[in-house]
Amino acid sequence: MNVSSEEIIAATCEQVKDCEEDEDAKSSECAVPEDNLVDTFLFDSKFLAFFLSGWPQHLSSLETQKMVVVFFALSTCATLEKLHVCFRAAAGEREALVDWIYAMQIGKSADERHSRRLFDADEVDAGFRPSGWALVKRETTNTASNIGGTENESEGEMCSSMMIKQCYDCSHLTMSHVALLSLLCLEDSLDRVDRAALLSHVASLQQPTGCFKCSLFDGEEDVRFTYAAVSICYILDSLSSINLDSVSAYLIKCLSPVGGAFAQKPGGEAHAGCTYLALASFKLMGRLDVLSDKQRQQLLWWLVSRQEHGFNGRPSKDEDTCYFFWVGASLSILGAYDLIDHRSARLFAKSCQGVCGGYCKTVDASNADPLHTHCVISALALDPGLNQVPSTEMLPLNDVLDIPEKYHEHLLRIHKRWNEQANVVEQS
After folding, report:
1. What is the pTM of this model?
2. SS (H, E, C) the chain
3. Are strands 212-213 and 105-106 parallel, antiparallel or unpaired?
4. Which of 141-150, 191-200, 237-246, 324-333 has the lowest mean pLDDT?
């Protein structure tokens, strides 16, 4: 994601100035370490909060990824304990963000579920859409009350309505995944999530190979959406909804014979991002032990080899700040986060800081963006102590859900409540 706009820089700089009135960093006579990243945390949170307010028109192309951008902002600010900055950007209240996320949920009502029945009568969409762009009402000669149209609606109007409703305004596994994570960061109860419909939908996307398609209409299927599906089922406390043996077998096939790390698909090139997704999936399923000692050692060697000063995602590629997290979290899952040179990684990240907060992709990139900002902060939070971050400045991260452990504990309390409710129902 490369946002290259002077308007964004000006807007975020102005918002950062607004914050300084009540959150100025305390002056100190001591020299600031050259690898210090803590002093810019406020600016980072303000940069991300910009994306929760009204977007300028030239950012309209990001509408198809808006739910992910919202997650980057909420999760990162939650990690920095600066969610109030996000609330200020979103009408000043937590509920505005919660309500927006739920407004993106598909198939909650019986009427909508009926209207979303696809060409195959057994397939019904459910989950979360990326944004509300397709919800804008469009005027037609004769307005239809539903996707089936009326007897007065022309065939062309009915087809247009169907294309918009079913082909463009549909759920996506990644959007459903980050929507749930965002709700957890907002300490929502998840009571408004249509759990049964979403779990059924996720199960319907699993392929004979064990992997998952990202949506009913999109043909993409690989380790990215497999991780999203596993994580959704974990969050909804129903891993039994999918075939875990098939998932494990598919992920093992994604191990590349060259280097021993994971690829996006079987037979592909090993990649740090895909390696994280595969390892996180195994850990969520409680199946990290499927990896042999030899495979673990190969993974450790390959992951540690990704560091020069910062990290790259595969051999012979440039360093990129996002791999601070993908590599670091992979090592964390394997219990080896201490193997990297943390100071060198922080120095590289600092060289990629944006003008008004946030982090750029590389040293020579012109502008910061939400993805790379999120990845740097999340990487630091994998072990704040090792990264010289005071405990008062940052919450420790859960390495498989990519949200603070505090909100994972909130999820576990939700699971306990769901189980207690289920037991009451069984006993009644």
Report:
1. 0.86
2. CCCCCHHHHHHHHHHHHHHHHHHCCCCCCCCCCCCCCHHHHHHHHHHHHHHHCCCCHHHHHHHHHHHHHHHHHHHHHHHCCCHHHHHHHCCCCHHHHHHHHHHCEECCCHHHHHHCECCCCCCECCEECCCCHHHCCCCCCCCCCCCCCCCCCCHHHHHHHHHHHHHHCCCCHHHHHHHHHHHHHCCCCCCCCCHHHHHHHHHHCECCCCCEECCCCCCCEEHHHHHHHHHHHHHCCCHHHCCHHHHHHHHHHCECCCCCCECCCCCCCCCHHHHHHHHHHHHHHCCHHHCCHHHHHHHHHHHHCCECCCECCCCCCCCCCHHHHHHHHHHHHCCCHHHCCHHHHHHHHHCCECECECECCCCCCCCCEHHHHHHHHHHHHCCCCCCCCCCCCCCCEECCCCEEHHHHHHHHHHHHHHHHHHHHHHHC
3. unpaired
4. 141-150
The DSSP bridge pattern shows strands 397-398 and 212-213 to be unpaired
**d(Cα 219, Cα 39) in Å, to the nearest integer?**
44
Task: For residue 354, give every residue at least 6 positions away whose Cβ sits within 8 Å of its Cβ, in sequence order, or none.
Answer: 9, 47, 360, 367, 368, 373
How far is the C-alpha of 346 from the C-alpha of 384, rounded, in Å? Answer: 12
At 124, give phi and psi (nearest 5°).
-130, 130
Alpha-carbon distances of 129 from 67, 86, 222, 383, rounded to whole Å:
8, 21, 20, 33
CA 116 → CA 97, 103, 112, 161, distances in Å? 25, 16, 6, 12
Paired with 404 in beta bridges are 397
Least confident of 151-160, 272-281, 373-382, 416-425: 151-160
> pLDDT category, 117, cuts 50, 70, 90?
low
Kindly state the percentage of the chain with pLDDT values over 70.
79
Q: Residue 397's CB: how many other CB atoms inside 10 A?
A: 29
Buried b (16+ CB within 10 A) or exposed e, 170-196: bbbbbbbbbbbbbbbbbebebeebbbe
In this predicted model, what pLDDT tens digit does every residue of 201-249 receive, in sequence order?
Answer: 999 999 999 999 999 876 789 999 999 999 999 999 999 999 999 999 9
Q: Are strands 221-222 and 397-398 parallel, antiparallel or unpaired?
A: unpaired
